[in-house]
Write a structure and sequence with these properties.
Length: about 110
């Protein structure tokens, strides 16, 4: 799942969960919710949406990418070429790794997967 997609899915899930929480609270007759349904609904939905988006960020956070991204940015800024391979099978990954290491062992970098 791509980062943008998981953020969107979890954000939408947050909205749905917020609406469910608000609906259950409203029909249960909680005084705080019943006395100001619009304000409480907005607050609950905003909080649960934020929590969903934060969960999407946590899920897609990849600290292993910094080992590749920062040297690639530095190389690109100095006018060097950056080659990025996105293999879909382990055989393709091994083939790309073998080739790229032969070309330049010193600056080869990869992420976990």
């Amino acid at each position: 799942m791509t980062a943008l997609r998981s953020h969107g899915v979890l954000g939408a899930t947050g909205v749905i969960v917020g609406l469910l929480i608000w609906g259950v609270s409203y029909f249960a007759g909680l005084a705080l919710i019943v006395s100001s349904p619009l304000v409480s609904g907005i607050a609950i939905v905003l909080i649960t949406t934020l929590l969903g988006l934060l969960a999407g960020g946590v899920i897609t956070f990849r600290p292993d990418h910094n080992a590749v991204i920062m040297p690639a940015k530095d190389a690109s800024a100095t006018g060097k070429w950056v080659v990025v391979a996105h293999p879909t099978t382990s055989a393709e990954a091994q083939s790309a790794e073998d080739y790229l290491r032969r070309v330049d062992e010193e600056t080869f970098a990869q992420t976990l997967g």
